[in-house]
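Batch manifest line 261
LIGAND: zinc ion
JOB: complex structure
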Amino acid sequence: MIQIGSIFILLCVASSILADKSGLAHGKSKKFDVKPVSEDKAKEYLQTFGYVNPTNLQSGGAAGGFDLLKNAIMKFQEYAGLSKTGVLDTQTKKKMAMPRCGITDEPMALTAGGPRAVTRKWSRNHITYSIDSWTPDLPRDTVRRAIREAYDKWSAVAPITFEEVSAGQGDIKVKFGSYSHGDPWPFDGDGGVLAHATMPENGALHFDDSENWAYKDADKIGGDYTDLLAVAIHEGGHTLGLEHSRDDNAIMAPFYARFKN
Ligand SMILES: [Zn+2]
Ligand SMILES: [Zn+2]
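JOB STATUS: finished
ARTIFACT:
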């Protein structure tokens, strides 16, 4: 009962941790100045992030496939807060080029795309994490502080405590990696997918080290660097069993935004 209760509380409070969209709104950051993805990339995106099941798309025949695709596009447009045209227009293809989390948005296509496990909660309230590899972008103490602060945010709103333990020993294993990094979900280089994490009781939290990471450095984060704290809070939410939020201001929204203090 305690566990069910704590997940319920988490779901309720997750929407109170806010992301900062001001960089996006004012177009200050070059990170958001993206070119639209290609038609092929757009279709791949819909499969990767769970908007359409690739098997259905292939077995649906030409007409059926068209409806499925249109449906998937509209679902994505709804998720992304765009007008639901059902076609891969420029605004849709641009949104698909925005930096984001690697986890699927829709649980329907479990075989495609991002990491996802069946169990969605931890069977205990004290969870350990270890930082198993590092980024050259920040001193280790700074990375440590960012991860600590991210989990403190969750501890503050749910009856769960976190403790950092030695490398390799954590229930949750935090890692920086580029491209292929030892799991079935290779990263994609600079931009695009920034990080991903698994659901309980698998504990993987991986940052794409092709990004330039920064911590509480407004100049860097306003430029081409990615806000480690914001991404760590978001991915930390996944490691506790939270899925993506359709509320664009919520920290669990799939698209990247800086953390709003
Ligand atoms: Zn996510
Ligand atoms: Zn990974």
